[in-house]
Structure formats: structure tokens, C-alpha cells
Amino acid sequence: MSSDEPQRQPGEGQEEPTARPSEPAARKDGPAEGPTPPKGAPGTPSVPDGGPSTQQLRPLGRPQGSAPKGAPKGSPQGAPDPSTQQLRPVPAGPQGAGQGPGKSQGQQHQGWAPREPEQGAAGAEGAAASVAAADAPGDGGTGKAAKAGKKKRPKRKGWRRLFPTWRMVLAGFIFVVLLCVGGFTAGYLLIDIPPANATATKQANVYLYADGTELARDDSRGMNRENVPLSKVPKHVQHAVLAAEDRDFYGESAVDPKAMLRAAWNTVTGKGKQSGSTITQQYVKNYYLGQEQTVTRKVKEFFISIKLDREVSKDDILQGYLNTSYFGRNAYGVQAAAQAYYGKDVEDLTVGQGAYLATLVNAPNAYDVAAHPENKANAVGRWNYVLNGMVKEGWLPSADRKKQKFPEPEQARGNQDLSGQRGYVVKAVEDYLIENKVIEEDALHRGGYRITTTLQKPRQDAFVKAVDDQVMSKLDKKARKIDRNVRVGGASVDPKTGKVVAMYGGIDYTKQFVNNATRRDYQVGSTFKPFVFTSAVQNGSTTQSGTPITPNTIYDGNNRRPVQGWDGGQYAPANEDDGQYGDITVREATDKSVNSVYAQMAVDVGSDRVKDTAVALGVPEKTPDLTASPSIALGPSTASVLDMTEAYATLANHGQHGSYTLVEKITKDGADVALPERGEKTAVSREAADTTTSILRSVVDSGTGTAALAAGRPAAGKTGTAEEDKAAWFAGYTPDLATVVAVMGQDPKTAVQTPLYGALGERRINGGGYPARIWAQFTKEALEGKPVKEFDLELEEGADVPVQPDPSEGAEEPDPDENTGGATGGEEDTGGAADGGATGGDQGGQNQGQNQGQNQGPTGGQDQGGQSQGPTGGQDQGGQSQGQDQGQTQGQTQGPTGGGADGGAADGGAAQGGQQGALGGLTQGTATGPRGRGDD
Fold first, then answer.
1. Interval 600-645: pLDDT, tens
2. SS3 345
3. Residues acting as catalytic residues
4. Which residue in 624, 639, 682 sits closest to 657, CA to CA?
5. Considering the entire predicted model, what is its pTM?
6. Which residues have C-beta within 8 Å of that of residue 800, sequence separation ≥ 6?
7. Helix 457-470 vs helix 770-782: angle between axes, to the nearest 10 degrees?
8. Other C-beta atoms lying within 10 Å of the C-beta of residue 925
9. Residue 546 in contact with residue 590, Cβ under 8 Å?
10. Which of 513, 460, 516 is nearest to 488 (CA)?
11. Three state DSSP letters for 169-190
12. Which H helix or E strand runs over 430?
């Protein structure tokens, strides 16, 4: 150490904040190495003397006695190496402490360069870091030391480690981009435009009965297609299709990635399968590929569409699309569709007709309003969407748009290979498979499926025979024009399995295209009333006075009685033919179908609960006019015959519901196609279902459905009539079979629903007449050879307890000259025109009275009021007191006269008292006329 280096005195200044372990201890308290530059020397900071920030610069050298690595021999040890030394600040001593004697004031070691001092602790830490960097072995210069002095990046700790860094994200993004570019290039180069597919060689779908025998073969002898050039398709038809399917067709690329992603997202999130395809993609799918929903097909469609768009003009693509799209009715291409729906060539289509055909492309099966009239509102909505789109795109003037009226299509002309019931069955099975998403519509129509149905040939034949015997054979279309409007629909379901064992769709598929068993456009009438009572028991409902609702609960059955407890305004429904019934039990009100009672019951239960119960039993939730209001009880909703059969089958199955099924098995190319699970569940309690069955048994035994007794089986059922007598229903079941039959009125030319007054020579068609007779004949033949089963019922508490009505508040006696078979229903009175008029000798006349009188009572009049409603029938119809009262009073009153002037349900003789006496049949056959209201 040089003797002229100033010595730091103890207590003078601060110690160095950090001492290197390798530094000798003398360094801490010993003198600084080398002289300190004098105050005011160039490069030194200007700091007041004696201030707390007074600093000294000290060289950052090696310890004394060590020579720099690579120093020349003979160089003095401890001499600073200008190439490796740095100056570092040295804190000054306490204020007022002077510099030691002998300190050099204006000299600076050669090769040393001062640097700006660092403030505070940071400066001290920086100095220590500089020392460490300078003294580290191998450090050779100022650059490395400076680099070592930089702050190190802190390590990622805690939750931050879970997220990738921006470098990782960027690398991943670049990798994905390169992968996509590579995949796109490979796909474009490897996938070529294939030849046209073999759609033109369409295979047949084969339909089989449950036993494996062939039912029908849907073989259209190849595609129904006639290709036409685009020049033959009017511009307004082209624009209609573009407005419906792809409005940006001429200005967009072959594929629309955003639409594809949106469709994929909607499919994944449960909004239903949706197509994000452009017209080009749809054409590629139709013409070059197939309809299968696979990733491979979608990838091929993507690349072929891009190539095709580069090689073929837009007009050529549109022409191909119009000639390959499926429009329903086995029509492929716009020319075949024009003929199928309007019987004209495509070049003759109007703007409205073209818009309707464009509507069909989206959902051919659903929007065919002739086959599915219940979907007309949706079809019209889509039609309006197409026309509005044409206006928006400038393809149709607003003035012309306002002139458009919905163009009703013609009735379909059925395939001759599907004549008779076969076409109805095929159509019903198609609808079932499409609605339940078992097979896509396009795939189904390309064929190749072998479909085993649940229909049983003997029972199917029995249904056809029953309709022919009871109705078709009695029509006289020449003598009675109204007979041309008669339609019949029916369906039968096994309650235990839900299998449809028989179906009647109409007289002939090639003559009447619409399936009367599956259409949803006729009111169900009073066949809905049992669901109101079922809901009452299910929910433990009470009357407005707090009395539990049971079969013996008494209601006010007077005509036009305003319902109580309804906050939606006044509602006072009329009974059939304005019948007055006074106080009446629920059982009697069901027998006579009293509107005022059931409207009040719907309010007592809650119309929303009634709707929920109906849906649980099997009525589709989206059934038209199935609204939660008191009127729901009167049946304005338009469920199909098959829907109602499913609901009644649930009652027959003690409240256990499983969706009906028409298909037993499906195979294609030897492989099975998955079918939906039936999924049986409890719709209502057994007590609710069985108690409903008990009152419906009374309807058959002594109410408006006595014609069903001809089945020779214990049966429960309900009659019903649509407004203005446009349809008459009978819905009933035995423990083994649930069957619903409806007779409907429809103009064969206009397809407009018509009343059935005068049809079959009757003044009125009632649910207890022809529908009940068809039901009875079919049920008898369908169950022939099977043991007779009794109902095994578990009733709600109080259901079998008789109620003694107050004699002072008895039912108002009807006018003898008034036909009270109504509200109970003209349809409900099976001794009316439908039964006791032209056919009165059969069921309403003397034979019926004598035969049933012997079985049920001593005379025709006592037959209803005697044994049937005495000690035996009393249990069924409201208790012993009621039976005795009616047995003694009505037996005496109606017996001698054969049931009185009308003997209908209003008098307690139900339909039998009137129809079983010689006079009753004759009188009712002539007294019953058109109804004033059709609320039943």
C-alpha cells in the first residue's frame, strides 16, 4: 500500500455496506486503495463539503498483493489495472469531519474514470454489486461488469405460473397458423372434385308388420326429377330461393366460416342442428357427396366447394342446386316440385308460388300444409320471410309484395304403390322418425332402410273392417252430397308397451292424402274433460267452498253459470242445447258431459295445472289452442287421434306414461339403427288415473257411450264433439287396449272443415254413435280369443262414498218438449239421431230396449233406473241412495213410457232409458236437431 494514500480514521464516515468474503479484513477499516480525486476535479460530482452526501471515489480493484490476471511480469502487486478498474463512491464521514492529513487534493489515478454517484441505499447496493462483478473470477472488463449490474427478472410465483408467457402464446399462435396453412394446402391438393353421387339410383324403403310380413315398399321407381336449365326458371323463383337460403350467393365466397362456426356453436349448445352451409356447399352435398353428418363429409364438402367455386360459374352452381334440392312429396328439383304442388311447369309459377316452393327447401315435411294443416301458421311465417327478403334485396317491389296471398298447394297425389292404408302408415312412420331425429329427412328419402313397424296385421285389418262396416258401407255420395265430406281416423295402442298396434288413416292414401290419425287440426271436444278430473285428484284440489273433488262432489250444472274464482273476466259456458241440470255429482256430469260443471272444475283445479296434467299424460305441449283458461275443459285444443290415444293409454296403464312408438326395429345394409328409448315414467298417481277410469266406466255403462258395450269387455271411455259438429270422437280403453276413433267433416276439393249435419242420413253425428260403434267392433275383434280382464282400480279416498243429494235442491226438471240429450251432448245421447233415428230399430228401438231390459232391468224403463242403478248400479253412479232414488222415481216415470219424451242423460235414464224403449228410440230419432252451440 502506498504511504501517500489517505488513511480513514475510526468513526470517520460509514462502513461499506457489503464486504466480500474474499476481501481481507483490513479492507473494512483500513485505508482506501489509491488516492481520492480532488474536489472540483474534472468528472467529480459537485457536493458540498461535509454534507451527508459527500462522496469519495474509490477504485474497484483487486485486493492488495494480487496481480491482475494476465498482467506483465514485474508489475507491482496491487497496482490498479486501468482496463479492469472502476471507481465507486465512498460515503463521507460525519458532518464536519475533515479529510485526513496527507490526502491528495487534485490528483486522480491514471486510467481511473469517475462515474455519477448513486443515491441512498440503492447507490450502496449498486456499488456492492459493482464490486462483486469486478472481482468475480474471469471478469475482464467494464462491459461485463455493467451487464452484471442489471436487475435480474424476478421468477414467476404463485398463480402467475399457471398462465403462459407472451412468448409461449406467440409461439403457439405461430404453430397453429402454420398447421392450418399446411392442412389447408394439403386438403386442397389431395381432395378432388368427385363424380356425381348415386342419388339417382335411390333404393326403396321396405316397411314390415311386427310379424315380419311386408306392409309396404316405398319404391318410387327412381327419383322424381326433371332437370331444367336456369333460363327456364323465372327470375322471381330464383330470387325466392336465394332469399330463403343464401341472399349473398353471388357476392360471397363458396364457404362462410362465420356461419359454419355459428351453426356448430348452436348445435353444441343444444339449440338444434343447424346448417351453416352456403348454396354452393349444399349443392356439393346434394350432387357430389351424401347427407351423412360426419366430420369427413364436412371436410370434403369444404374443399370441394372452394375448388368448384373457382372452376364453375355461379349460375351453373345455382342451376345444379335447383335441380337437386328436395322439396317433399318425393319431388327432387324445382320442376318436379312445381308439378307436385301446383300441377304446372316451373316457368308458369307465380311469385307467391315460387316463394312457397322456396319455403319448402328448409323443411319439406313440416311446411307441406296439405299434409300437415296444423303447421300452416309456421309455413305462412316462413313464406312471408322469403317475400320480405326479396323486397329487402331489391328483387321485388313493395307494391307487388302487398298483393301476394298465400297460394294453397294442391292435395298430393299418392303413390299408387302405397294405396289403401299403406301410404298412411308409411307417412306416419316417416313423420315419427324425422320428428324424433332417428333419421335425417334427406337420408330417409334416399332409401335403403328396412323398417319393422309395431303394427299387427290382424288388428290392422280389423280396424279397416270396422270402419267399412259401420261407416263407409253406409255412405251414399250420390244421394247425400254431405257424405262426400266424411272422414274417419283411428289409432290403437297397447297401454303396457306404448306400441301402436293398428291405425286407420283414411279411405285410401291415393284418394285422401292426409292421415286422419295424425293430423292436428280438429277440436277434441269433451274427450278432454277426463284430464280435468285427473288433474283435480292428482293435485288434491277442492271446490270454491273447500270440498275435496271426488266423483261424488256436487256442482251446479245449470246452463251459462258464470265460473267462480276466475280473474280473467266473466266466463259462462253454455251446456249442450242449453240444458239445465241443477246440482249434479261429478260422475253424473261426466256421464252427461255438462260444460258448466267442468269449466268450474278447471278453475278450481287451476287451468295451468290442467294443461300440465294433459301434457304429462301424452298430449303434446305445443298442441294448437291448448291454452290455460277455463275453456280448456271443453276441448278447443286440436290434438291428433294418435295423441289422444297415447293420453288415454296412460290412464289405462294406471298413470304410467311412455311415448308411443311406431317402429320396432330399423336396419340399413345389415346394421341396426338406434331407436329412442321409450322412457316410461309416472305421469299421475295411480289413484288419479284409476279414479278417472271409474267415472269413465260409468260413461260406458250408463252414460253417453253405451254403444261401446257391444265390445263385450269391461270398458271406460268418453264421447266428444267438436264445435259445429265438425268432428265426433270416442276415446276408450280396456285393460289391454286403448283406442280412439274420430269421424270428421272436410270438403274434398277445398280441404275446408265442414259440419256433419245430415251425413249418413242422420241429423247429427255424435261421439256415442258411429265413433263408439267403430270402437266396439274393432275392440271386440282385436281382443278375440284373449281372456276378459277386469279393471284393477285403486280409488282416491271418498271416491266410493255415496252422496245423498238435498231433495229441496234437486235438479231442475227439463221441459218434456226440449231435447236435453245435448250438453250431455247431442253427441252424448246415443239414443239421438245417430242411434235412435234411422238406425233406431238397431240400437234405439224396441230390440235394444227389450234385450238390454232383460239384462239390466225388468222393463225398458226400469232397465236404467232399476237394477242397473239400484243396489248394484248405485255404487257405480254415485251411491246407493242415488241408485234407489233414480231406480224408484225414474223407473216408474220412464219405464211405462219407454223413457219419456227424450229419455236422455238429463233425466237419469242416460241414453239407455230412451233408446231401450220402443217409444224412446222413435222420439229421440226425430226430436234431436242441430245443436245451438258446439262447446262440447
1. 999 999 999 999 999 999 999 999 999 999 999 999 999 999 999 9
2. coil
3. 245, 526
4. 682
5. 0.61
6. 875
7. 150
8. 25
9. no
10. 516
11. HHHHHHHHHHHHHHHHHHHHHH
12. helix 422-435
